[in-house]
Write a structure and sequence with these properties.
heterodimer, A: mainly alpha, ABC transporter involved in vitamin B12 uptake, BtuC, B: alpha/beta, 7-stranded mixed beta sheet, globular
Chain lengths: 305, 359
């Protein structure tokens, strides 16, 4: 029982940054923009988030700094990929390389410092119920925020007119433009939202997960978030399942090793990725209508007037 | 065009990571290639500390340059060559994966001297150096066995390579001298550096009943988790007491400074010669951080063991070494295992229940 609870708590913590970053990327991709710079925005968010929290002593200010840094990074991307219509793939990759370097520069001052991590929720009595108490009512705020964010994004995309317009831009930017919608402006907002989420996801690492900053501490989580949006076939609900599945496989393989279950660790480390491939195959087989990707994803749009 | 953009970005990064001090014509130029950022608080950080000590000691006679974040593999060759072209006469390449690139450049420039860390290929102008960390692991094993209430140690491994495996074995041999029934749980994270995953591994080990955390990965994440849970742990490469003031028992500290100073002095005197140095406590190639968070008798024991190893009276791999299969390992080095057996170690010793990956 105790072990089950411990495993679930670890899974929640491991999945949260993936879910946050993937939610932001999902919105950006739904508007038709493929931003491969998630890793770069995350790591800059981690550096600025830690910096903010360390200087002010406030986790919330740290989280805001991380989000703000992510937005600034995404604006750089927007200026290139939307404003100047540069190839999105190249710009996104460059943003990641740039972000890794920049975060090292920003974070150099904070290396070796430590902060008090984000507090865990504690409701008297309720949080003390075995298993469900700790799991449902005893996590740090980021965990609940990430889930609320997914619900909000779902509501926005499928229940609000603005969400419908955003999806229209992602599926057919020419038609959306012809109908008079400012495609580039809408895409810029979507990219900025993606940046804020990636920045927050990055900030989660030094603020709650491992409360210190080290260059390169995102260690590829941005790329996993990118894979998750594909895994989820651009649907917010599946994103939650995917993120927790990824987190669960990662944590369970560590526990399996500790328990001495004789499966090669290299194989188990690759399990989450194997799971992605299998799900992708299943999804594409189950559908007859072809790809579920936004039709205009990754294409450059230049308004003709 | 896309490729140009990427290339430009990469060039910018490389240019940005190049730092150099003021130029003087007759000073000896010494170059360093680092794997990680200088602020990684582990492996690269310790090399950087040694470089700073070198500058402090011989700063009036030398000028140093370093390139950080240089990936292992073919790219490293360009970085090494860049240092040669910039006029560096002695170049330290500080990671195992720089072995072949360094050798290639060394063959091209016979008048430049190279020092490669932790590899096994050498040339007339390319020396190698490394440290006998397993000595420190043996001491840690003894301490761990004394301090563990559960009798279960948690070990976070990076990759199942001989250096890491010999560390696990030395730990267990040391621990068994105190508690013959000691158990170890091993988790491989298949990465040198992933703070999140290292933290998750530490949590998993503690959740499964281990009460001492040992690691062969580079970040202080595991130490921080141990601290959070009020458990004990050992640091790695670097002083990590800041992340676990009430948790760190000791830490193996890479201290490259004496070696770097000695080699640069030799270069200045014109007496530099290629060779292989595999130093341990006896040559201060590494040190043990202060023994903290343990009772005096344990501390005394650890200091005693350290003194015995330093004096050459105790060898962690003294024969007989019994493998997992219960058979004695051939004793090639007289009364202890030969260096080559330690450098190529690919078996677990008796008492480890786990299976070595790939075996």
């Amino acid at each position: 029982m105790e072990l089950t609870e411990a495993i679930i708590l670890s899974v929640l913590a491991a999945s949260t940054p993936l879910l946050l970053a993937a939610t932001g990327e999902l919105v950006a991709e739904r508007s038709g923009v493929l931003n491969l710079g998630v890793e770069g925005m995350m790591i800059v968010g981690a550096a600025c988030g830690f910096g903010g929290a360390w200087l002010t002593g406030s986790i919330i200010i740290g989280a805001l700094c991380g989000m703000f840094a992510g937005v600034l990074m995404s604006l750089l991307f927007a200026a290139m990929a939307l404003g100047l219509a540069v190839n999105q793939v190249a710009t996104g990759l460059a943003l990641t390389i740039f972000g890794v370097g920049l975060s090292g520069l920003i974070g150099a001052r904070f290396v070796g410092e430590r902060i008090t991590p984000a507090p865990h929720l504690h409701i008297p009595y309720v949080s003390d119920i075995p298993l469900i108490g700790r799991v449902l009512f005893g996590e740090d705020g980021f965990v609940y925020l990430s889930l609320a964010l997914v619900v909000a994004v779902w509501w926005f995309l499928y229940r609000m007119r603005a969400g419908l317009i955003l999806r229209a831009c992602g599926d057919n930017h020419v038609s959306a433009h012809a109908l008079g919608y400012p495609v580039l402006k809408i895409r810029m907002y979507a990219v900025m939202f993606g940046g804020a989420c990636a920045g927050l996801a990055g900030a989660y690492l030094p603020l709650a997960y491992t409360p210190f900053f080290i260059p390169g501490m995102t260690a590829g989580r941005g790329w996993i978030a990118l894979a998750l949006t594909v895994f989820a076939s651009w649907l917010p609900g599946r994103l939650v399942i995917g993120a927790y599945l990824f987190g669960a496989v990662t944590i369970l393989q560590l526990h399996a090793q500790g328990a001495g279950i004789g499966i090669p660790s290299q194989f188990m480390s690759s399990l989450p990725y194997l799971a992605t491939v299998i799900v992708l195959v299943l999804l594409s087989r189950a559908r007859t209508g072809g790809s579920t990707a936004p039709a205009a994803l990754g294409t450059v749009f230049v308004p003709d007037r | 065009m896309n490729r140009n953009l990427l290339g430009a970005a990469a060039a910018l990064l490389i240019a940005g990571s190049l730092t150099s001090s003021a130029v003087a014509a007759d000073k000896l130029k010494v170059g360093f290639i680092y794997l990680g950022p200088v602020g990684d608080l582990g492996w690269t950080y310790q090399h950087e500390l040694a470089r700073q000590a070198l500058v402090k000691e011989l700063g009036d006679k030398i000028e140093t340059t370093f390139l950080e974040n240089v990936p292992e593999g073919p790219d490293a060759e360009r970085a090494v060559e860049q240092l040669v072209r910039a006029g560096n006469k002695l170049i330290f390449t500080t990671s195992f994966g720089y072995m072949d690139p360094t050798l290639k450049v060394a063959k091209k420039y016979p008048n430049v001297h190279f020092e490669h860390c932790s590899g096994y290929k050498r040339d007339n102008n390319m020396a190698t150096y490394s440290a006998r960390w397993y000595q420190g692991r043996y001491i840690q094993g003894e301490i761990a066995a004394k301090m563990s209430k559960a009798g279960v140690l948690g070990y976070i491994g990076s990759f199942p390579i001989p250096e890491v495996v010999s560390g696990i074995n030395a730990t267990m041999i040391g621990a068994q001298t105190i508690n013959p029934n000691i158990k170890v749980k091993i988790i491989w994270v298949n990465s040198w550096f992933d703070p999140g995953k290292e933290a998750d591994a530490a949590k998993a080990l503690l959740d499964q009943g281990a009460d001492i955390i040992m690691q062969h990965t580079d970040s202080p994440a595991a130490m921080q988790i141990a601290s959070e849970r009020g458990k004990l742990a050992f640091g790695q490469d670097s002083e990590m007491i800041k992340f676990g003031p009430k948790s760190q028992l000791t830490s193996i500290l890479d201290t490259w400074a004496p070696y770097y100073i000695e080699r640069v002095k030799a270069e200045l005197d014109g007496t530099w010669k290629s060779g292989d140095v595999w130093g341990g406590l006896e040559t201060k190639m590494f040190e043990m951080a202060p023994y903290t968070n343990m009772p005096d008798d344990v501390k005394k024991m650890a200091e005693g063991t350290q003194a015995a190893i330093t004096a050459g009276k105790l060898h962690p791999f003294k024969c007989p070494v019994v493998g997992q299969d219960g058979k004695e390992v051939e004793c090639k080095g007289g009364d202890h295992l030969e260096d080559s057996q330690i450098l190529g170690m690919n078996f677990y010793v008796k008492g480890i229940d786990d299976k070595l990956p790939g075996k």
